[in-house]
Design brief:
The protein is an alpha+beta fold. The protein folds into three domains: 154 residues, D-Maltodextrin-Binding Protein, domain 2 (3-Layer(aba) Sandwich), CATH 3.40.190; 147 residues, Dipeptide-binding Protein, Domain 1 (Dipeptide-binding Protein, domain 1, Alpha-Beta Complex), CATH 3.90.76; 216 residues, Roll (Dipeptide-binding Protein, domain 3). Helix content is 32%, strand content 17%. It has 20 helices and 19 strands. Strands 11, 12, 13, 14, 15, 16 and 17 form a seven-stranded mixed beta sheet that branches. The longest helix has 18 residues. The two termini are 36 Å apart.
């Protein structure tokens, strides 16, 4: 995940604040063609929001009666901080991008990598070069040509230091990528040299190897081949090409739209299963099937709502105002006791690990003994039982059960209050009295307050530490946790698999320059292990190197590994064809929305 998948995602968002509130359903009589034309005329985000509302009202009043649209109403919870393919990393951000775009490859329901925009791919003998052949006659949702030059632009944009994307490091295997994305932008010559290497390493061409039209590369219909050259073997990279960082957003739309281009339906023109029809920030996102999608058309429109209070979302669901919501732990007893709701509950394995993060550059968590003390005074069993109501499983390690690299023998830093107090006494602070003030920061919803109050109370009970609760607005919280300078002292965060490989769990997240650096984690010995593992072709040796790296990671108690999630969704009985996978971090069925239909005869 992802998360999708990284994603990277928020614990509070997945377990608590994927919450909904009742939002008005779209007018059933809207003529899609008319609305799309009007939306495309809008430029400014605020103009789009206002005019789209007016257009819908106008069409409803004047349109010839048509078949009522089938609308799948989903609460996504927190509104995304950003919806830019090369800058996004959180589940709620990726849940938008997966609807609008598609990569050269994708994951099927078994999480196997299968062809998508590319019909085939091939590695050279030592896996240092990967060549994709695109499907013939590919187009964007607006009917314009989609060729290999578009994908080359997106990959290069992901690496470009000016983009400063959250997932930029995931394409570091490409020759020249680490040097370009890490170059000092003030040193123009060095950046230009590195960019030139990347341009040679991400090459769009005709099938015979001849260059695409340099004057109009995006208009060259024969430009159907993309060749990637790596600085080291990367036999897994065809799966990386399924991730959102490779999605082919249009260069001209990004340029014209400016910094906030992604908030406008005019500029979010993609090649995925759905079209972004309208986006009202913090209120509603509305998607219609892409008539030009190569796999076929979706059967329903999709509406996202952004309500962060799960209690409100649950009431709206019971009132038939939503079709899919995340089931909150606080509602589980009510759901199971209700004859109808219990039948609508879908609980199945997830792909995420959650941890209590300790910022290694902010006192007192600069001291490993303090981190050990907090980790050993956290009762994971009680958290899962009393707070999550069983919707999860305690863990003391990073890679979850069922994924390659899972370590079922790890038992360090488990719940042990006496050992926790001893560790704190051995720290440089000596005692509770010697600690500086500590804030526990969280996404502010009523239920999140209760959960974090529970956590703070337990640390007080078992360790004697008083923590100040620091509630933050949900979208702001997401933004804070993305930056090493603004990430709080301690907070809950999760990681959902983008693809089932230890490389995604360890190299992508914890290697220096990855997501772990947001909390100041950097370990040269760990980097050496995962770097060697990434380039090792022998499966047994590769697995052993990743196992050593995961053990070394846990050695330093960088976080308190806490629990693995389960997917837990309420789905109305009239929703048909949902394909469920462990990576359904946004909503149940997101991996393949075109299979979903609504039986209107079953609706009340």
């Amino acid at each position: 995940m992802s998360n999708k998948k990284w994603a990277a995602i928020l614990a509070v968002l997945v377990i608590a604040s994927m919450l909904l509130a009742a939002c008005p359903a779209p007018a059933a009589q809207v003529v899609k063609e008319t609305v799309v034309v009007e939306v495309e005329k809008q430029v400014e985000v605020l103009q789009t929001v206002v005019v789209e509302k007016e257009v819908v009202k106008e069409v409803v009043a004047t349109a010839v009666p048509q078949e009522v649209a089938k609308v799948l109403r989903i609460n996504l919870g927190t509104y995304p901080d950003i919806i830019d393919p090369q800058k996004s990393s959180f589940v709620n951000e990726i849940a938008h991008l997966q609807m609008i775009y598609e990569g050269l490859t994708r994951l099927d329901p078994n999480l196997e990598t299968v062809p998508a925009a590319a019909e085939s791919w091939a590695y050279n003998d030592d896996a240092t070069q990967l060549t994709f052949t695109l499907r013939p006659d590919l187009t964007y949702s607006d009917g314009s040509l989609l060729n290999a030059a578009r994908f080359a632009y997106s990959i290069q944009r992901n690496i470009n230091p000016e983009t400063a994307g959250e997932y930029a490091g995931i394409t570091d295997e490409i020759a020249g990528a680490p040097e370009w994305r890490g170059c000092d932008t003030a040193d123009a010559a060095a950046c230009e040299a590195a960019a030139a290497v990347v341009a040679e390493s991400v090459m769009a061409s005709h099938a015979d190897g001849t260059a695409c039209n340099a004057d109009a590369p995006y208009e060259d219909a024969e430009c159907n081949t993309l060749t990637l050259t790596f600085s080291k073997p990367a036999p897994y990279f065809h799966t990386v090409m399924s991730l959102w960082v490779t999605y082919p957003a249009k260069e001209e739309n990004i340029t014209e739209g400016g910094d906030q281009w992604y908030n406008s339906s005019k500029f979010q023109i993609g090649n995925g299963p759905y079209v972004l029809q309208s986006l009202e920030p913090f209120v509603r996102g509305y998607f219609t099937p892409n008539q030009n999608y190569w796999r076929g058309q979706g059967m329903v429109d999709v509406e996202y709502s952004y309500i962060t209070d799960s209690a409100v979302a649950f009431e709206a669901y019971k009132n038939n105002e939503f079709d899919i919501i995340a089931g909150a732990a606080e509602d589980l007893e009510v759901i199971k006791a209700d004859p109808q709701l219990s039948q609508e509950l879908n609980t199945y394995p997830g792909s995420c690990t959650f941890a209590i993060m300790f910022h290694q550059l902010k006192e007192p968590f600069t001291d490993q003994k303090v981190r050990e003390a907090f980790a050993m005074s956290f009762d994971r069993e009680a958290w899962v039982r009393d707070v999550l109501r069983g919707l999860g499983a305690p863990t003391l390690t990073w890679i979850p059960p069922g994924f390659p690299g899972y370590d079922g023998e790890e038992n360090r830093w488990g719940f042990d209050p006496e050992a926790a107090k001893a560790a704190l006494a051995e720290s440089s602070y000596g005692s509770v009295e010697g600690l500086p003030p500590i804030k526990l920061t969280f996404s502010d919803t009523p239920r999140n307050r209760t959960r974090n109050e529970w956590l703070a109370a337990k640390w007080k009970e078992y360790l004697g530490v008083d923590l100040a609760l620091d509630p933050v607005e949900s979208t702001t919280y997401t933004a804070l946790t993305k930056d090493i300078n603004t990430a709080p002292q301690t907070f809950i965060l999760g990681w959902c698999a983008d693809y089932p490989d230890p490389q995604n769990w360890l190299s992508v997240y914890w290697r220096t320059g990855g997501f772990g650096e947001r909390i100041g984690y950097s370990n040269a010995d760990f980097d050496a292990l995962v770097n060697e593992a990434d380039t090792t072709v022998d499966p047994a040796k590769r697995a052993e190197l990743y196992a050593q790296a995961q053990t070394l990671l846990t050695d330093g108690a960088p976080v308190a590994f806490a629990w693995n999630n389960v997917n837990n969704y309420l789905i109305k009985p009239w929703v048909k064809g949902v394909v469920k996978t462990p990576q359904d971090s946004g909503w149940s069925g997101i991996q393949d929305p075109i299979t979903i239909d609504i039986d209107t005869t079953a609706k009340p």
